[in-house]
Amino acid sequence: SRQAQSQQLLMELENQRKQRDVSERKVQQFHLAIEQRTKQAELARDTLSVRTEEQEVLERQAKDETERFTSLSKRCADLQQELSAETQALAQLDHQNILLKAEVPRRQQECDKKEEELKIVTNKVATLEAALEHQIVEIASLQKTKDAELAKLPGIQEEIKKRTQEIDDLRRKIELR
Asked: Long-range CB contacts (< 8 A, 24+ apart) of 57-62?
């Protein structure tokens, strides 16, 4: 039971470690996505500065690129928020991990205490079983004695009848005199 609880706690710790690893990978992916989006935004700005021909086309392209940059910036902000949330979740997982690690010795102590209690109860049961066996032996002995005494009873009853008859005979003789 103690081993099963310890094993369960270790499995929980492993699951949390795996969750933390997944969160860290997501954080890395977010960083890469931010870098990629930032590079894309910089590339868009460079494209705007290079194109100086045809003012109307440039203005439309500038407007389009500006909208795209705004969208990318918003996406960057969203990714930053997601990164912050994942970082917070990772901190919570670390905290839970610390709490679970602190819980292991306490649970182990509880298991040890329960084992000691079980040993005490087992010893009491063994003592009671020995006492019960002794009582059974005594009862069997008393039963044998009782049976032996009951076996004598018909002879004693016969003796009493015989003595009663003798007493009755003596009374009659006394009455006859």
From this structure: none
How far, in Å, CA of 114 to CA of 112, rounded?
Answer: 5
Three-state DSSP at 54 gives coil
Angle separating helix axes 2-50 and 55-176, nearest 10 degrees: 170
Give the model's pLDDT for residue 36.
Answer: 94
| Residue 80 contacts residue 33 (beta carbons within 8 Å) | no
Query: Is residue 21's pLDDT more than 70?
Result: yes
Residue tagged 């203005």 (tokens): 59
Is the Cα torsion angle 147, 151, 152, 153 positive or negative in sign? Answer: positive
Distance CA 146, CA 25 (A): 86
Q: 3-state DSSP call for residue 66?
A: helix
- Burial track 56-87 (b if 16+ CB lie within 10 A, e otherwise): eeeeeeeeebeeebeebeeebeebeeebeebe
Q: Are 94 and 20 in contact (CB under 8 A)?
A: yes
Whether the model clears a pTM of 0.85, i.e. scores above it, the answer is no
Choice among 7-16, 38-47, 133-142, 164-173 with the minimum mean pLDDT:
38-47
